[in-house]
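Incident review: delayed structure delivery

Summary: a single-chain prediction request sat in the queue longer than the usual turnaround. Root cause was a stuck worker, restarted by the on-call engineer. No data loss occurred. The affected request and its eventual output are reproduced below so the record is complete for anyone auditing the incident later.

Affected input:
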Amino acid sequence: MGESLRRCVKSLENENENSVRDEARTALLDICNNLLRSPNDDKSRELRLDDHVVVEKLLPAVGAMECLFDIGYTEDVTGERIFLPHNASLSRLKTLSKLLSGSGNNSVIENITHRRPLTQNTFFKNIIWHFNDILHYEDPNLQRKARSFIPIAKLEIAAMTKLREVQKSLKLNDATTKSDSLQLETDLIMKDLFLLELLHWFKCDFFKWVNSPLCSICSTESEYDSEEPSADPRCSRIEIYRCTKCDVVIEFPRYTHPEPLLTLQRGRCGEWATVFTLFCRSLNYDARFIWDQTDHVWTEVWSVSNKRWIHVDSCEDVMDKPLMYEKGWKKKLSYILAFSKDEVQDVTWRYTSDQKTVMKRRTICAEQNLIHLLRTLSNQRQNSIGYSRARKEYVVKRNLLELAEMLYIPNSRNEDSDENYEGRLSGSLAWRLARNEISQTNVSKNHVWNVSKYGQTFELRYNIVKDTYQVVSNADILEEKSGWLERVNTVEGEIFRKVENDWKMVYLARSPHAKSGRIKWTFDVADSNLRLKTFSLTAKSEVFHGASVSSEIEAVFNDNKAIVIPVPNCGNFRTEDVKDAVRLNVIVTLSGGRGKDAWQHAQLFRQSLENTEEQSMIISIQLKNCCA
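Output delivered after worker restart:
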């Protein structure tokens, strides 16, 4: 029986409430039995993703959808259903049925759950393999080759430009923010800014995500068929796909060594983290490969300016949001390990705010056994020939700083209520739904723009390609902030920034689970001597299949009277109806669409990734003296 299928069933059995587990198990058994009774019936092979069985019984259960994908189910081109191809073997289906029913071998489920010594042995072998494998990144020839792919000069210019803009905006801040600005200026050193530019370039321009490879003849997306072992030691396995149109067989090698990936420039999270970590090492960052036992990998980079390890996920273009997986993706974390040239560390506690619950899931081995293994491996590496005493002393000091951070941060993160963690963006919708890695939360940032801070003219520009806001006056940038979400007041319907690397487009869309999405930006006249005079808005949007992107302005006056002004055309809107108001709320609603992809049919700020300089939204506000 396949170990991957065993793990899926084990997740179903161990990581769900009893009622959720029983509902999902019954639904899976019904699917298996129907298919085995009528293997040639297309209806028995198909499952719509909006069907109540999927929505109410399978999606809520950890491991349920993974079981279906593991036995061969695949997503169709519309993204509205999954199905089992006729050429898929039924042997794995029969195995799943046996595992779920607990028949044979004195209850297969029980054997999976309680066979701890073998599981510990496999777990430890995996750790040792990763720790040895990490030394590939230290090959000077491989690092030199990696550097040749990176547009270093271009990224340095971009980082320097950003640094100058930040420094310029800091000088324009008023006295009340100067102490914070001084700290910020210290933290935002060039190397950290360069890392941000490297991350964004890697995600948008260099590496590509692969759900299933395209046919080399007709460019149609293929379907998973099987997998085979590889004779190449740099490759863990070869996934076999078949074209749905011309039946051509396509091989997708899953490389664990970074060198062939420099040329292929594609893969899933394993390949992404492998190459990005190599890039960081080739640029002399202290970087390490992070392995999450619940099936994800990413990178950590030591920030000299912050004196701590920074979480960097190249798949998501996300930096320094370690709780993203627990809060955004809803992952049930257990073991997260960091592998570097110096050591292997258990860094689970950086990624959770619920230590007690995580401890209950850590059942593979005794904690002392894991600690002993990690210490032994690290000591062997640091006492090896050629490892300098100075390096060892540096690593010890760095470890003390890391220990202090992880003792403090998990407790403080329980109060981290105003930080947003989006669901997973990489991978197909069906795949993310199956892994339950899509968040379903609303966000209150409560940010208010003080427009009177800049005089009687305020102009705000947002560029979705760069994902930055700029406050501009006479072509001069007064202030720049990254992240569209960081400067909104509230968000409903889990709006997220969707990047389509295949179509080279980017836009804001609502969650697939939400019937509508709503964003509110708030602008306040804090100076009591000033009032609003005029308001204008220019914004990009696209709609398909009956969807809608609608906007309105809510103007609030000194006596708390408020009026709502509809915006019939965001392409070029101007009004004087806001005259004498002291606060404005700009509200955009995304709704409508057709079928399972309705969430994608209302697109705010849709723009080409290659159109880097064009603004996605411009808001202009004119103020006047209150007596005028």
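Verification: The longest strand covers residues 530-539.
Action items: add queue-age alerting; document worker restart procedure.
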